[in-house]
Amino acid sequence: MTKIRTRIAPSPTGDPHVGTAYIALFNRAFAKSQGGEFILRIEDTDRTRSTPESEAAILKSLKWLGLDWDEGPDCGGPHGPYRQSERQSIYQEHAHRLIQDGHAFHCFCTAERLDEMRKERQAQGLAGYDGHCMHLSEDEVNRRLADGEASVIRMKVPEEGICELEDELRGTIEIDWKQIDMQVLLKSDGMPTYHLACVVDDHLMEISHILRGEEWISSTPKQLLLYQYFGWEPPVFCHLPLLRNADKSKLSKRKNPTSIDYYHALGILPEALLNFLGMMGWTMPSGEEKFTQREMIDNFDVKRVSLGGPVFDPEKLDWLNGRYIREDHTPEQLMDRMMAWKYNREYVDRFLPMVQQRIERLSDAAPLAMMFFQGLPSINAASFEPVKLDEDELKKTLQLILWKLETQRHWNKDNVMADVKAVGDHLGHKMRDIMAPLFIAITGQPASVSVLDAMAILGPDMTRGRIRHAIEVLGGLGKKKLKSLEKEFQQIAAFMD
């Protein structure tokens, strides 16, 4: 019998996402329920966006949740390396094997030609690459390569017919090959794209089952074709329902906080968050909503996964977290959890010097320190009455600051200040007019300790969560204005840096 082996393969290009934890939980629960193994692999082939800081944050957050793995970049294993950036020669070898076997080809098309080709094909109702370089002679290909001409390697796909893929939850899915592009497998810099790397890695790491989000269904034909080209047995595919916002849209940080670190900063217990994610599309046979990871593993049956879009409801998470706090802790144990969370000397030492400069009695410290422990400040639209900006400009300013801070990859006071100033300069506002609403959004008060220092201490997730909350209490921007502003932000973001 084949050993059950599942994996989670996050890209270290941002904050650790609750969607990553959701997929990791179901992969681990399935593997462990079958006496199998769970592997962590880092997909860091995007060299411009991947960072060691993001990788470290992902590993730390998954371990905080109790989602440990049997093999990975930190603990090794017999199928390493477990970072794709360290496996480049493996992918290059397999890409050239596909060329030799007639399943792939060098493509020399320039970006300009590809743009023009896409426009022409869209006008004809067609999609994907037109096969321009597929029939170049071997002599011409070798000559152009010898001349140092840049190229990528693309896979060949059938021009007609239907791809039938079997899904553990959904049965047979049919996708017309005409919808499938001649995917780039190896980029001009020698790095692989996702499709080549994941197929090669999943095979060499002996992954037996792939549980992933349903957004990958449309990519599965390309991957099945690669398995066929290499002569490998494909794994079992199981596409899980996506986490969704209340309006059924895909869960995103534009509508809900999605960082695992945000929920940690909010005071959510790891076992409660993991339990909550387990409830997303799956239920215990008994119907009990509160269960441990061990109980989930002991009762796990992938056939019990519901295909209805699970709604990520923060109020339900708070309710469940409250049950854990009340039902699973003595007062002494709760104090230990609070001390480990934020009520500790190391954390207090970070903001106490600022508080010290603003108090005359010891009792004055509590109101100033409170905002470092609370989740979202108790504010409403009236809280912003002291601000000079009119309502529309206020919401626009906060929204642009939020989006600018979402691009910040190195969180510290100076970088936060630079982002805020960049927005102010773009809008033509004085800094004091920009800082006033920030004070209220972040601290809940029109004046407090240095708001920039506070943002640095609170961290990116809580800071952005509070700004997002402030925009919500002000009524938001509305879909049309938000879309227009987002387009404006994309146009001017580069000039803000």
UniProtKB/TrEMBL annotation:
Q: Does the keyword Disulfide bond feature in the UniProt annotation?
A: no
The cofactor note reads:
Binds 1 zinc ion per subunit.
Q: Where does ATP bind?
A: 253
GO BP, sorted A to Z: glutamyl-tRNA aminoacylation
The Glutamyl/glutaminyl-tRNA synthetase class Ib catalytic domain, residue ranges: 3-319
What Enzyme Commission number does this protein have? 6.1.1.17
Entry's localization field = Cytoplasm
Give the Aminoacyl-tRNA synthetase class I anticodon-binding domain ranges: 333-471
> Motif 'KMSKS' region in this chain: where?
250-254
Pfam families in UniProt:
Anticodon_2, tRNA-synt_1c
Keyword set, alphabetical order: Aminoacyl-tRNA synthetase, ATP-binding, Cytoplasm, Ligase, Metal-binding, Nucleotide-binding, Protein biosynthesis, Zinc
Which residues of the sequence carry a binding annotation for Zn(2+)?
107, 109, 133, 135
GO molecular function per UniProt: ATP binding; glutamate-tRNA ligase activity; tRNA binding; zinc ion binding
The principal location of this protein is cytoplasm
| Listed GO CC annotations | cytosol
Cofactor(s) named in the record: Zn(2+)
Give the residue interval(s) assigned to the motif 'HIGH' region. 10-20
Recorded hits in InterPro entries, A to Z, give: aa-tRNA-synth_I_cd-bd, aa-tRNA-synth_I_codon-bd_sub2, aa-tRNA-synth_I_CS, aa_tRNA-synth_I_cd-bd_sf, Glu-tRNA-ligase_bac/mito, Glu/Gln-tRNA-synth, Glu/Gln-tRNA-synth_Ib_cat-dom, GluQ/Sye
Q: What reaction gets catalysed by this protein?
A: tRNA(Glu) + L-glutamate + ATP = L-glutamyl-tRNA(Glu) + AMP + diphosphate
**Subunit field text:** Monomer.
**Role, per record:** Catalyzes the attachment of glutamate to tRNA(Glu) in a two-step reaction: glutamate is first activated by ATP to form Glu-AMP and then transferred to the acceptor end of tRNA(Glu).
Q: Which family does it belong to?
A: Belongs to the class-I aminoacyl-tRNA synthetase family. Glutamate--tRNA ligase type 1 subfamily.
- The name under which this protein is listed is Glutamate--tRNA ligase
The organism encoding this protein is Saccharospirillum salsuginis
Lineage, uppermost ranks: Bacteria, Pseudomonadati, Pseudomonadota, Gammaproteobacteria, Oceanospirillales
